[in-house]
Amino acid sequence: MSTPQPQQISINELDLSQLADVRQQLEQELNHLSNSFAQLRQAQAKFKACIDSTAEIKPQNLDKTILVPLTNSLYVPGKLCDAEHVVVDVGTGYFVRKSRAQATKYYTDKVAFIQSNLEALEETIQKKRDNLSYILNTMQSKIQAEAQPVKKS
């Protein structure tokens, strides 16, 4: 049994209230996509900060007192006892011991993966903006057409 194909309707066939509904839906989608884009940018920035932090761990800092971040605003004093390995948060509460080089590669790969997602998302956002612009232009044309006085013969 074949699945029914989605029915396509020309934008020009819709009345103003239907166009307003489509516009509202597009605006909601754009808002959601824009929020997702911002969250991906934040995640990418955090991974870049992890790359920088990993680079700061150096053998000459062994047994020196350092501030260890527990959160973005809470640090506790600690001593660096292993300059070659770090603990990496790989998600959902799992942590893995990796060498500095492995950790840097892990974070670099994450940054690249997020970048590819950002590029795809940016393309989708642009298409949605173009669609919204087309809907707004169509609505404006319909409003102007309705405002034109009807000529009597």
UniProtKB/TrEMBL annotation:
It comes from the Eukaryota. One of its GO terms (biological process) is protein folding. PANTHER family: PREFOLDIN SUBUNIT 5. The keyword Aminoacyl-tRNA synthetase does not apply. It comes from Fistulina hepatica ATCC 64428. This is Prefoldin alpha subunit. GO terms for cellular component: cytoplasm; prefoldin complex. Residues 16-43 form a coiled coil.
